[in-house]
Amino acid sequence: MTERIDAHVHVWNRATDPQDWIDPVTMGAIARDFDTHALAGMLRATGMERAIVVQATNSLPESVRLAASNPASVAGLVCWVDLTGDVTAQLARIEENARVPVVGVRHLVHTDRDPEWLLRPDVGLGLQALSARGLTFDLVVRDWQLGQAARVAAEHPDLRFVLDHLGGPFGEGADQSVWADGIRALADRPNCLAKLSGLSSGFRPGTWSAEVFEPVVTTALEAFGPGRLAYGSDWPLAELGGGAGPWRETVDALVEGLSESERDGILGGVARSAYSAA
Fold first, then answer.
1. 6 Cβ contact partners less than 8 Å away, ≥ 6 residues apart
2. 0.70 exceeded by the pTM?
3. Facing residues of 76 across strands?
4. How many angstroms separate the first and last alpha carbons of the chain?
C-alpha cells in the first residue's frame, strides 16, 4: 500500500504570523493556532501518515518559519515567494535553514487585487524560475479564473501545476456550469493535476453529504482521471465544514468504485509524485 499523504494542510501561529483573513465570527472554528502536534493527531485520526503543508498567507517570513520546522509528519512545504521579484534569492532565504523540503510555491491568486495576476509577464518569468528548479505551482483560483490557469499552463508546459480545492469551495446552491467548463480546459493540459480538497468548507456542518459532491468529483475524475487527483483534507479549514474526518470518509465513498491502485494513488501516490516527496 502506498504511503498515505494528505496533499493539503496548513499550520499557523498567529503570534508570529497573523491570519487576518480569519473572521472570528463566521470562522470561529479556526480562529486559534494550529501547530504540527495537532497536525500529527489529525493525520492519525484520518488514517494518513504525512502531509504537504501549504502556506496560508502571501508572506515570505511565514514561509521561512514553516521551512525551519522539522516534524516527521511533514513531507514537504508549498511556500510563498513574490513571483514578480527575485525568485532565486527568496527561495535561498527560505531554504537557508530549512529542515522541511520546499516542494512548491503558491500565491493566493483568488484574493489578489489584480484579477489577471496569473497573466502578467513578470509572473510568467517567476513561473519559469520555478520550472527551472523543478518546483510545482499550486493554483488557488475560483471558477472564473480556471480559463486563465489553463492558458498559463499551456504557456509553461514544463512546469507542474496543482489545482487546489478543484477550483472551489462551492457554496450551497452554487451554479457549477462555469466551473465544469474551466475544469475540463485545465485538465486538457497534461502538466496539470488537482486536489480533492477544500470543498466542504463552504458548507455549514451537517448540511452536506457525499451525494452533494458526487457530481463535482465525477466531473473531476472524468476530466483528470484518477492518476492526476490527490486527496487533501484542507485542515484546519475543514473544521468549518465539520472536520477532516467526515471529508476523508466522503472521499473514500466517492472513489469506492475505483481500483485499489487508483485509490492508493489518490490517497498518496499522486501527491508523492507531484511534489517529489521523499
1. 43, 46, 48, 50, 51, 52, 231, 232, 233, 235, 271
2. yes
3. 52
4. 16
Asked if 6 contacts 269 with a C-beta cutoff of 8 angstroms, the reply is no
pLDDT tens, position by position, 190-218: 999 999 999 998 888 999 999 999 999 99
**SS3 category, 135:** coil
Measured CA distances, 92 to 67, 100, 197 (Å): 11, 14, 30
Contact 4, 267 (CB under 8 A): yes
* Residue from 164, 146, 99, 106 nearest 130 by CA: 106
Distance (Å, whole) CA 52 – CA 224: 21
Superfamily of domain 5-274: Metal-dependent hydrolases (3.20.20.140)
Alpha-carbon 110 to chain mean position: 13
Longest dimension (CA), the chain: 47
CB 175 within 8 A of CB 139: no
153, three cell numbers:
499552463
- DSSP symbol at 230: E
C-alpha cell at 75: 513531507
Residue in 267, 210, 276 with CA at minimum distance from that of residue 7: 267
Helix (H) / strand (E) element for 193: namely strand 192-196
**pLDDT tens-place string over residues 226-239:** 999 999 999 999 99
Structure-block grid coordinates of residue 177 = 456550469
- Listing DSSP states for 28-80 in one string gives GGGSS-B-HHHHHHHHHHTT--EEEEE-SSS-HHHHHHHHH---TTEEEEEE-
Instruction: Provide the CA 208 distance to its chain's centre, in angstroms.
Output: 21
